[in-house]
């Protein structure tokens, strides 16, 4: 892939042999039709399995690589938001580093396995998420051991997630001031920590959130504390919410400013009201930026779901959960490499697609089929004495490359 080599050439601190290995690794990962592990990487590349195991233990600057690759498709003026989310990785074996009890969203229960935290950037214009950096969540005892020097009493996973922001802060600030999270992160310690680093938070509240109505009337003269609140907001009745706009026939947005008791701060709250088949549903979104437009707040949170597609495609097509190693460094390399491979395919397609094309749908399955076909032809035909130089420019070649793809390209 030309894009991989171009970015690697810009990374002067990466050695020649590591550049060659990484380029070969990405091409092989995209050519494997089944599980991506050391055995399959060796079979489809012709490189000894030992070489993969050795290189996976070496450090690589994935964050810089992803940042440089993302800059290839981010147009000046595009709105970006950052997101952080976790994914459960099923992993057996007591000797695997980081194996502990984590929440498995697919099964809706806590299970033994691994957990990774992924930082992603989401382009609002193209509604596309790009992975930036992934870090494995340590077990609770390991977190307490790692954070002894931070003077935090009884550090928890929330403290660990906040520590990751210290690593990513400067890079993310180059792109956006807004971070989007799901309802799990709506906790005072987390919101305060992210705000202290210079970010605005966009998130989701519980339906029974304790919101107090702010008092904006005249204050009585004399002694005593000035009046702050009128009472508790009745969310079901949309008390003190103002109608803002209609997104579609079934969705309306209402907004208001309230004091959140648990977060101990003023926030802007947007009630997303959906009415279908005579039933009414309400979801509460919020932002610590009191001046953020209601529609943008709704769009930012809605775009957060794109990070879920990263996890889905990485699991299905680039081997996110199929690493054979139990080593901490190798697991870290494998997780990030799977996200890099997915990133590069997305970026390459965005560079090639017509900017005027509407309703463009990304299909990782189609790209995997094409990479597999191209790798197969490139291995067999030269050994049979065929020169593919002139054949590659023929329409029939593209037709063969697209065999098995959901969406054809270049025909």
Structure report:
The protein is globular. Among the domains are: 229 residues, no CATH class; 37 residues, no CATH class. It has 14 helices and twelve strands. α1 runs antiparallel to α2 and α7 runs parallel beside α8. By secondary structure, the protein is α+β, with helices and mostly antiparallel strands. Strands 1, 2, 3, 4, 5, 6, 7, 8, 9, 10, 11 and 12 form a twelve-stranded mixed beta sheet that branches. β5, α8 and β6 form a beta-alpha-beta unit.
User: Pairing-aware structural class of the strands and helices?
Assistant: alpha+beta
**Number of DSSP strands?**
12
Gross geometry:
globular
Radius of gyration: 25 Å
